[in-house]
Amino acid sequence: MRVRRISPPPNLVVERLDEEFIVLSWDAGVALPPVLTTAERDVLARVVRGESNATIARARKTSVRTTANQVASVLRKTGARSRFDLIRRYGGIGDGGG
In terms of pTM, does the model score above 0.70? Predict the structure, then answer.
């Protein structure tokens, strides 16, 4: 087996689970705006995954109108001009629910 050395990414975190397993994680460079509420962060992650307002509302057990207001708030706070712009900017956060 050939092992190739690579440079570690910035902000590398090493967690040892036991003698056999090590978890490596690092910041992928996708930072959420700190001004978003917990609900807005959840809505943002779902928008980035391509979910519609109706789908988000059902999953979060809120009305479609509440979800639309939260999406509008996320757009305003992030400075994004559209859902597509949110996906372009924050596409890495929707993968793990992060």
Answer: no
Mean pLDDT of the 50-74 span: 96
Phi, psi of 49 (to 5 degrees): -80, -5
Cα dihedral 28, 33, 37, 43, rounded to 10, equals -60
Say if residues 43 and 70 touch (Cβ distance below 8 Å). yes
Task: Answer whether 40's CB lies under 8 Å from 70's CB.
Answer: yes
* DSSP secondary structure of 11-71: T-EEEE-SSS-EEEE---S----TT--HHHHHHHHHHHTT--HHHHHHHHTS-HHHHHHHH
All structural domains of the chain = 38-90 (1.10.10.10)
